[in-house]
Amino acid sequence: MNIVVKYTAIALFMIPLYAQGDWFNKKTYWHCLLKNLEDVQSDTIAQELINQCKDRYPFYTRIWISKESPRFGVKTAKECTAHHGRDINSELAARHIQSACYKLYIDN
């Protein structure tokens, strides 16, 4: 009985720590595109990765996103597009990266 209480207490302690892991890592459809489409060389692979992001994030989560204004790193949509799209040979991936950047960042 004592061991059950001990493991229950450990589990209850670990759940909040596990849940807080996503507080600092923003995970949206648009972030998924930026992360997965970097360095993509073909439209076929790009389409598969886009579909994976669509499957992972429901449609309604793609609509209402607040614009980011970070203090460090990429600050505008143009900087984001140049940063994430620099090594891409897929037109499809480049278009989706540009869309994600303009969805997430201000367009100055």
Describe this structure in words.
The protein is mainly α and 108 residues long. It has one domain (26-104). 62% of the residues lie in helices and 0% in strands. It has five helices and no strands. It has helices at 2-24, 29-36, 43-56, 77-84, 91-104. The longest helix has 23 residues, at 2-24. The chain is globular, with a radius of gyration of 18 Å.
Summary of the model, kept short:
With 108 residues, this protein is mainly α. Helices cover 62% and strands 0% of the residues.
Q: How would you describe this structure in keywords?
A:
mainly alpha, 108 residues, single chain
Helix share bin: 55-70%
> Helices and strands, in N-to-C order?
HHHHH
Radius of gyration: 18 Å
DSSP summary, beta strand count: 0
Termini Cα gap: 62 Å
Computed structural class = mainly alpha
Mean pLDDT: 78
The major sheet is characterized as:
none
Shape estimate: globular
Q: Structurally, how many domains make up the residues?
A: 1
Helix count equals 5
Q: What fraction strand?
A: under 5%
* Unreliable parts: 15-25
